[in-house]
Structures are given as C-alpha cells and as structure tokens.
Amino acid sequence: MIEKYDTGKIEKESAKLILDDDVTKKSGIYPYILTRDEKYLSIRGFSDAMKQKVYEKQKGNCVVCKKHFEISEMEADHITPWHKGGKTTEENCQMLCKDDNRRKSGR
Questions:
Q1: How far is CA 66 from the centre of its chain?
Q2: What one-character DSSP code corresponds to residue 41?
Q3: How far apart are CA 107 and CA 100, in angstroms?
Q4: Between vectors from CA 103 to CA 45 and to CA 94, what angle results, nearest 5°?
Q5: Could you tell me the sign of the dihedral formed by the alpha carbons of 28, 34, 35, 36, in that order?
Q6: How far apart are CA 95 and CA 51, in angstroms?
Q7: What pTM, to 2 d.p., does this model score?
C-alpha cells in the first residue's frame, strides 16, 4: 500500500524544525518527519553546567526512585518531552538514575 503525505503539512513542520535551536542536525528533519524517530535530529542535550545545577537542586536524588546517586550515575531528562514542545532548559531538566531514565524512555 502506498502511503500519501500532506506536503503542505510536511513543509510547515520542517520550517518550524529548521528554526528550533534544539535541532542540531537539520539534514535529519525529513527522515524524522517520516519516521518520528528523534535520533535523526540530534536534539541538543543539556549542558554539563545545567546538569550540575539540577543535580545539586535535587540533592543528588533521583526524582523517580528518590535514591541518592553520584552525578555520573544519573542522566538529564526533559520533564516535558522535546517532541511535546519541551525545551532543553534548566527549568525543563530533571536528573534520573540511569535505570529509571531507561525505563521511562522505553514507554
């Protein structure tokens, strides 16, 4: 079966993604639009400084399991996911232990 695409809708979305500062790989925009796989966009990650600030604000505790971890055992996560309009900012960052972050990503 041949899938039909709304080219106007694709062009509108691609224009929006081109202007998004979090999208660091503009050549991946069309593959992303067709597959919805964010790996094609190379979404900008949280800076080390942002991770450190959020880690300290959380006192080294994972927001999911509430256990304490060293920063090297944690990963930064978007509170509001990027694909739902969440930006890569300190206010939209939470630190999760690696296990909880991987479980969350697997949903």
A1: 22
A2: G
A3: 11
A4: 40
A5: positive
A6: 7
A7: 0.70
Residue 33 confidence class, pLDDT cut points 50, 70, 90: very high
Q: Tens digit of pLDDT for each residue in 4-32?
A: 889 999 999 999 999 988 888 899 999 99
Domain boundaries, the chain: 7-41, 48-105
DSSP string, 76-90: EEESS-GGGT--SSG
To which CATH superfamily is domain 48-105 assigned?
His-Me finger endonucleases (3.40.1800.10)
CA angle 105, 69, 22 (to 5 degrees): 40
Look at the block and give the residue holding tokens 């600030």: 53
Number of residues that this document lists for the chain: 107
